[in-house]
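Note to self: keep these together.
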Amino acid sequence: MDVVFRTEVTVAIAEDGVLGLGSPDGEEYFYPPPATAVWIALRASLGSVRDATGTLATAWETDGSVVRELIEQHVRVWREAGLVRTPVACSRDAATGRPPRSGRLPRETTWRRR
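Structure:
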């Protein structure tokens, strides 16, 4: 999953690490310091949940699956609040996490001329 940040969202980080996000419709949301770290890691990784997970798992010396779950929870909350978007997922190679090399659809779903 990748995250697309909405450009209209305002961001502030308080001295105590609290993350403040302002939505395009004027709503304000506040999150604890771990969410701040998640936001910063996602921004630094250009929205890549996979890369942000690796960064935070290393920094926190924590299992990546635990960190990924935390990131996904925050992304769900932020998406529901309209602060971020998540593009429609495409199939990904399990080993690399990247889309498949071939742009072709499986044979049964392609159009044929008669």
